[in-house]
UniProtKB/TrEMBL annotation:
Belongs to the TonB family. It is a single-pass membrane protein. This is Energy transducer TonB. It comes from the Bacteria.
Length: 234
């Protein structure tokens, strides 16, 4: 007759579960061991517990500094200078005018109105009589003659600045000047790539001769004229 085992008392029945619990416990212990942090204990010594030897005597030398007081400011006596003024004082007398029934009324026709001529600058294109360049008095087309004479004047007086040549400066300078009522050359405006070229353009225009002034409605007027001057290195 074979002996029979009780299945409830079998020790291998729950061995796998115990193995899993044991593995989790070991893993938890390893994790805590790796993450465990310790700090060095800092020891603070109480300075108040230090005892000073009473036999030690220290005599600190005492220095007495003498401060020189600042000098007192000099107080100058106040002198009053009396200047005799022999020039008499001229006082302006203000006369009050009161209007009464006997006050004489001035007739407006007795007053003279002086008309001052208004100064008008006329454009070169719209002016009735253009300024005449010396030598163009007998020409029919005075505008074309003026332009030709301006080109001749520029070529005759043109001088390329040496410093501008050394610096390699070139370009166009836009200029404008005013022909005044008396035919003289007025303000010269210039704008170019460099001051050296602008100065040379202004010098050329300043040598323009006196012209016959332009006229609008029979009266001499100021007329602006614009012309470009080109500087080009060979």
């Amino acid at each position: 007759m074979e002996p029979k085992k009780n299945p409830q008392k079998d020790l291998n029945r729950k061995s796998s579960m115990y193995f899993v619990f044991g593995l989790l416990l070991v893993l938890a212990m390893v994790f805590v061991a790796l993450e465990w942090k310790t700090f060095d204990k800092i020891q603070y010594d109480d300075l108040g517990l230090n005892k000073v030897d009473a036999s030690i005597e220290e005599d600190a030398p005492i220095y007495q500094l003498q401060v020189t007081p600042p000098p007192k400011p000099l107080v100058l006596p106040i002198e009053i200078e009396i200047i005799e003024d022999d020039n008499p004082i001229e006082e302006t007398e203000v006369i009050a005018i009161e209007v009464t029934p006997d006050t004489e009324v001035i007739d407006p026709t007795d007053l003279k109105v002086i008309d001052e001529p208004e100064e008008v600058d006329v454009n070169w294109v719209t002016i009735e009589e253009v300024p005449v360049f010396p030598g163009c008095e007998n020409e029919t087309d005075k505008r074309a003659c003026f332009n030709d004479m301006m080109q001749k004047h520029i070529r005759k007086n043109f001088r390329y600045p040496e410093l501008a040549q050394e610096m390699g400066l070139q370009g166009r300078v836009n200029t404008q000047f005013i022909i005044n009522k008396d035919g003289s050359i007025g303000a010269i405006l210039k704008r170019g790539p460099h001051e050296l070229l602008e100065a040379e353009a202004a010098r050329i225009l300043s040598k323009l001769p006196k012209m016959t002034p332009g006229k609008q409605r029979g009266s001499a007027v100021k007329v602006p004229f614009s012309i470009p001057i080109t500087f080009k290195l060979q």
